[in-house]
Automatic annotation (TrEMBL):
Keywords recorded for this protein, A-Z: Signal
Signal peptide: 1-19
Protein name: Long-chain fatty acid transport protein
Keyword Signal in record: yes
């Protein structure tokens, strides 16, 4: 029965994933959009830390962690994001609900297999702007209304393997197929003219990349253990098929747009490099009690580019992310008091995103807390995470984004493929 439920959920969310808007940020216009995936809810609640192995929770940031699974695990997570964006003169609020990941991990002896679907990056913004043109007496002659819309992103389908090489060392690799479509529309309408213009751009992105990972775990004393983790992603390339058309439009009183004439404009197909990534971290603690750790992720983001050659105003630089976090379980064996079996998580994350606008680096800082709520009599957990953060700045004609993300996930683990002894 449980397998039928999982299959039904997978089908539902695989259809819904293509229609979602996972961001409301104008920064998502550049490159391949906002990089949304920063780990499962369990990892994100610890500042995106991926150092710790787990026998019943999926860790899809390092493929070597698949070898730590003892039970077949299904993981699903989504986020409700509330963002307040502001400049020096204006403010706006936006809300989005999106699927973060859907994955399954299967242990097979010393081998662990994982596969799933991840919405990796997201484009989603709606910006309206009115420019007033005045004469020498400062009287308004005309106004120009501009509207910018974007939607889409890049998704990943992955297949990964982890192998327990020794008692202390796991190794792993995964293969990822990237695909997606990004659509942007730029509308301009002048009040003293009957018609306006709209430029429509569509980019279809495709490409393959892979990750390599290794983990290390050893006892320091009778209770405490040390954990180490290393992940490397080589540089890869996305092919981008671009199309563009320009329309003469009429803006109706209902705000609907009627197309009067359309003309296709030839544009070159492009290639976008996905940067190489190196992530390494370490942790220390008592298994099933408490653990703390830190992680550093380096991205060679300077190789990134935009989808169209004529996009101006943005450059890219090498990026870095620092993560610090951990968890605490009062007593995972407690049956009398439920709150003692809850996993309490917390963490901090700081990163230079690698995007440079107005010669200013766009930085992102967030604080995280989370709770793992076990369901009695099962290995299933409902995981809740809260992230509060800030990205960018309101100065230098840029946008400051203050966000609160509430994430909820399901981690369901059970024994599959067990041969029945009795009918």
């Amino acid at each position: 029965m449980i397998k039928k439920i999982i299959v039904s959920i997978c089908l539902l969310f695989s259809l819904a994933i293509f229609a979602q808007e996972g961001t409301s940020s104008p920064y998502s216009f550049y490159g391949i959009g906002d990089i949304k995936f920063k780990g499962t809810i369990e990892n994100r609640s610890m500042g995106s830390l991926s150092v710790f192995p787990d026998s019943i929770h999926l860790n899809i940031q390092n493929p070597a962690q698949f070898a730590s699974l003892k039970l077949t695990s299904f993981a699903l997570g989504g986020t409700y994001a509330n963002t307040k964006s502001k400049t020096e003169t204006q403010e706006a609020k936006a809300r989005r609900t999106s699927l973060d990941y859907m994955a399954i991990g299967i242990p097979v002896g010393k081998l662990g297999i994982g596969f799933g679907l991840i919405p990796y990056s997201s484009v989603g913004y709606k910006i309206g702007k009115t420019t007033y043109i005045t004469n020498t007496n400062n009287d308004t002659i005309r106004s120009i209304y501009s509207k910018y819309n974007g939607i889409g992103g890049v998704n990943k389908v992955f297949l990964g393997f982890g192998y327990r090489l020794t008692k202390n060392i796991n190794i792993g690799a995964d293969l990822q197929y990237n695909f997606g479509t990004i659509e942007t529309k730029d509308l301009q309408y002048q009040t003293d003219l009957q018609y306006g213009s709209r430029e429509n751009n569509v980019s279809d992105l495709r490409g393959v990349n892979f990750d390599l990972g290794i983990t290390y775990q050893t006892k320091v004393n009778a209770k405490q253990s040390f954990f180490g983790s290393l992940t490397y992603t080589p540089e890869a390339t996305l092919t981008v098929g671009n199309t563009r058309n320009v329309e003469i439009v009429q803006l109706l009183s209902t705000s609907a747009v009627t197309v009067i004439e359309r003309q296709n404009v030839p544009v070159a197909d492009t290639k976008i490099k996905l940067p190489s990534k190196l992530s390494f971290g370490a942790g220390f603690g008592e298994v099933k009690k408490w653990l703390v750790g830190g992680e550093v992720t380096l991205l060679n983001n300077s190789v990134m580019s935009n989808r169209f050659n004529d996009i101006q105003g943005a450059t890219f630089e090498n990026a870095v992310r620092y993560s610090l976090g951990g968890f605490f379980i009062p007593n995972y064996n407690s049956y009398a008091k439920y709150y003692k079996r809850i996993v309490y998580r917390g963490g901090l994350r700081y990163e230079n995103t690698g995007l440079v606008l107005q010669n200013k680096s766009i930085n992102d800082f967030a604080a995280n807390i989370g709770f793992g709520m076990p369901l009695s009599g099962t290995f299933t957990n409902i995981n809740i995470g809260l992230e509060i953060g800030k990205r960018g700045t309101k100065y230098y004609n840029l946008v400051e984004e203050n966000y609160i993300n509430l994430s909820i996930g399901l981690s369901l683990s059970d024994k599959w493929f067990v041969k029945r002894k009795f009918d």
